[in-house]
Each structure stands twice: as C-alpha cells, then as structure tokens.
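Quick question: what would this complex look like in 3D?
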Amino acid sequence: MLNKVKELREKTNAGMMDCKKALSEAGGDLDKAVDILRKKGASLASKKSSRATKEGSISSYIHMNQRIGVLVEVNCETDFVARNDAFKNFVKELGMQIAAANPTYVTKDEVKEEDIQKEKDIIKEQNKSKPESALTKIVEGKINSYYQDVCLLEQPYIKDPKTTIKELLTEVIAKTGENIVIKRFTRYQLGETA
Amino acid sequence: MLNKVKELREKTNAGMMDCKKALSEAGGDLDKAVDILRKKGASLASKKSSRATKEGSISSYIHMNQRIGVLVEVNCETDFVARNDAFKNFVKELGMQIAAANPTYVTKDEVKEEDIQKEKDIIKEQNKSKPESALTKIVEGKINSYYQDVCLLEQPYIKDPKTTIKELLTEVIAKTGENIVIKRFTRYQLGETA
C-alpha cells in the first residue's frame, strides 16, 4: 500500500493524504486512483479559474535548424509557482506543441463566428447528399475536429494524444494549486507570408 | 602595415585586398580605413537590396528571469549564410536590442501616417510659442527622434549607441555578401495587456 501511495504521488504530484484517500476509494487500483485525483484536479481547477494571474513565464522554443520559432506567455498567481518545475515543464511542452501542431488560437472563444459559419457551409456542401438527420451529427463532429485543429487547448497533446492540452493544463493547476492561464503565443515559420 | 591589415580585417571582416586598399587610401589611419570600408559596405548593401531572401533564421531571446521574450525572423539568400557566424551573431544581437529598446516597427515605412500626424500635432502644440521658422526644424528633429524610438532600424545599437541598427545591418550585408532583411519580430513582456 505504501509503495502504491508513493507511486501515485509521483504520478500525480498530489498530497500524501489525498493519495491515500484516492487509493482507498479506488480499492487499491492505481489507475482508478489516478482518475479520482484527476477529477478532483479538474474541480479544483474550475474553482481556481477566477483568481488573478499576474506572474508567470515567457518562454521560447526554436525548432528544426531555426526554421520554426515559438514564443509563449503563461500566467500564474505567484512568482513562486512561476519557478516551480511542473509549471516550467508545462510551458516548455507548450512551446513544442505549438511548433509541431501549429494552432491558431488558444481557446475556442477566440475563433470568429464567421469562420465557424464558413466551415459549416463547406461541411454541408460536402455532405449535401446525406439525410438532414445525419447532417446535424456530421457537422457537429467536423466542427469539433476543426476546433481540435486550430485551438491549442482542444488539441491532442503531441506526446500523448489521448490527453488534450486542456487536460494537461488542468493537471498543472492541480499540481501547483494556482490558477494558470495560457495568455498568448506567436509562431514563426521561415519564409511564410505573415 | 601587415599588422594593421590584420587588425582591419578582424574589425571589418573585409577581404585582404580591400583592407590593403582602404589602408593605403587612408594613409595608414586605421579608423579612416574602417570608415572607407563601411562606406563601401553601404554601397554594396544598396546594390544587394533587391535580391530575393528566402532563407534565414528564426531566433529568440529571453530576458530578465523569463519576464521579457523576443522572437525575430531575419532572412538572407542562402542557407550557407544563415549558418554563418556573422549572420547568427547579428540575429542574436537583434534579440537583445528588441528586448532592451522595445521598438514597435522594423522600418520607418511601417509607421502609420496618422501616427506621424498625431506626433506632429503634439510637438506643434508644445512649441506654439516658438516662431514659425524655428518650428519646422523642431518638428523635424522631434519626428526623427520618434523614429529612433519606435523603428528598430533607426534605433541606436544598445551596445554601441554611435551605430544604428541599420548600420549594423549594412555591415553584416557587407561581411556576408548577401542581401539580408529583418522580416519581423514579436516582443512579449510579462503581464502587459496585448
């Protein structure tokens, strides 16, 4: 049991008591305990999401022989967390994610309504032979994958595609106990017309 | 004489024959010879300025405990020059310059006509007691220092304020023999409202 607590702490960075509780709730099943802590993390994250974030870190990632460059700003509440390894590592991973997966926005909210409308029109045009009842589901599915393409938070994490960047963010909020916000990013690719 | 040629080459990176010629033209005066080569570099640079630049480098500079970050793209003609030390060093210096001196634009051309007009109105208002004849000169001088504030190419180089970034660019064009263009930059400062 103690070994499992240790493993769970390493996996989730949660406190000793939280790990013990989650493990007993999960009947000793490590994966279930991770899930329990994740859900707790998610609820913790939503509680923290209204708190002011004035500190943080600006980080860069240069890829492929200087042909791709990324600048990203991530905010947190205190300078203390800005220097925390879990936070710094998250910021570093974001740089690589943005370089590789080339998102356009941070959140869904930033996507313009007219762009969504344009996507919907294209999808409907491409599927006009389908019955109306199926079309709604098709549009919904395709719009979701559109968001997964262009919004950083909706993207599957390149190193673990079962996890989204939003889930990664939730985890680091749980680990650090602070509200954390991906504020903005810029990505340059050599020779692209800006 | 040979020592001076060597020193001049190290200072300017110009060819052996060019250095000899410049030194004899300058009557052995090293500073004068540097000036002669600089002028030559400038005329060389203007000749090269129409050539296509598709290669280059994207570089970043992170300053002050991750509180300021800069991303900059500089283009040149060949991958060979992109890997040249003079080029790479120039790009690096630009990152530090942008972090420290916080320009808004690369060139004068990017400044909006209305912003210039606004500056002019402010200057005229501040100097309305001055005679009309003096006012023209005052406006001209202040607009020049406005450009030196906001345009990267017009800024005095932070490590050697007698030199402008434009002159530094001219030098690296002369050294590498290629057209080089500062394409764009982005500067983040922690917590600023973007």
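Answer marked as accepted. The radius of gyration of chain B is 20 Å.
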